[in-house]
Amino acid sequence: MAPSTMMIVGGMQLSLLAVVAATSPTLYGLELIKNSPAVPGLVRVDGATGKVTAVGPALQPLAATGDLAAVDTKREMYYYLGDTESGTTLVGVGLKNGSVACAATVPQLREIGFVGFGQSLNFDATADELILSGVITTKNNVSRHLVLRAPGGGCGGFTSVGEFGDADLIPMLHASAFDPVERRLFIELATSKTTFAIGVVSLVDGTLKKVDIEDATDGDFLVGMKYDPTTKTLVGLATSADQASLAMVQLAPLTGKWSTRRVPTNLPILMGNEGSVSALDASRGALWVVLAASTTSQDYHLAQIDVATGTVANEPPPPLGKVGLGLLLNLVFKNET
Asked: Is 110 exposed, middle or buried, given 0-12, 13-18 or 19+ CB atoms closer than 10 A?
């Protein structure tokens, strides 16, 4: 379960940012429009053709823009995390015109070196609340992982749900997922430098618990994991150590058991922070990711992975278009939390 080494930093073209999709094969996300400083813009992505269309003007550049994103479907608002001199910054953008609806720092949280590292961002449609988590440092200089909630429609008013220990040992980049049915947040934690757990947070009653994860073998790790309600597992993709093959990785969050299946494809390289830029359409059992033939390729493809079979459903995946530099910063379906 080695941590990801690909990160998004303002002024550096290291990976994709984030994306949100609707009930049809249409996705929304942020693309890096220009660099130095990094300027993102809201885009619409056609899941069938890979065509990318700008929605509104380019956004105000932040010091960095992360690949965490969530959608408030009631208000048609796209949320993402960025970074300013004041620290972690939450931004809300209108899906219809791409304009900024709100922006505010989250003073309770800090990053571990990079925006979004050790953090999570989701929207609980049932309670009409934003759910965000990340690292805090107490007055006694002890690090904890704090879970926050805030009313939908804005960028503030956060209150604490609870917290986990072991925050300094968080092993993965953006490893969290949300179950909108039972309203549970899953966060990957480290219980030591070599052992790991899933933190399970109930947004219904506020209870928190840890489930130990069994020892991982090669390929058993999750970055940008999603919760699949059909299999009741946390699911993601992973490129093999030799970069020759792609695997679908699933983790049972209540038992800590792994399962891994090879995904047949000639595009084995998982782009976008090694998988944190992804979107799950739970109604179709489809995981959307960005793939490439090699680590040096600039030709990205939008692939739809069938979770039930572990195969590429839209073979061959269409090329991913662009309106700026072609670097998507984040990826989410409109109906995905």
From this structure: middle
Residue percentage of the chain with pLDDT more than 90: 44
- Sheet architecture: strand order including 246-252: 226-228, 233-239, 246-252, 257-263
CA–CA distances in Å: residue 235 to residues 92, 182, 218, 276: 27, 17, 16, 11
Kindly state the average pLDDT of the residues 170-199.
79
- Residue appearing with tokens 């209540």: 254
> What are the backbone angles phi and psi of residue 274, rounded to the nearest 5°?
55, 30
Q: Do residues 31 and 325 lie in contact, with contact meaning Cβ atoms separated by under 8 Å?
A: yes
- Which residue would you say has higher pLDDT here, 173 or 111? 111
**Which has the minimum average pLDDT: 6-10, 39-43, 228-232, 327-331?**
6-10
Residue 8 has pLDDT above 50, yes or no: no
Residues contacting 319, CB < 8 A, separation 6+: 50, 299, 300, 301, 302
Identify the H or E element spanning 30: strand 26-34
Mean pLDDT of the chain: 82
CA dihedral 59, 63, 67, 73 (to 10 degrees): -40
Please tell me which of 52-61, 113-122, 169-178 the model is most confident about, judged by mean pLDDT: 52-61
Distances (CA, A) of 325 to 17, 21, 36, 92, 296: 12, 21, 12, 22, 16
Q: What is the pTM of this model?
A: 0.86
pLDDT band at 10 (very low <50, low <70, confident <90, very high): very low
The whole-angstrom separation of Cα 69 and Cα 89 is 12
- What is the length of the chain? 337
What's the CA gap between 123 and 127, in Å, rounded?
9
- Phi, psi at residue 169, to the nearest 5°? -105, 15
Q: What is the phi-psi region of residue 190: left when phi exceeds 0, alpha when psi lies from -120 to 50, beta otherwise? A: beta
Question: Which tokens hold the place of 48?
Answer: 């069938």
And the tokens for 79? Answer: 């949320």
Phi-psi region of 166 (alpha: psi -120 to 50; beta: other; left: phi over 0): left
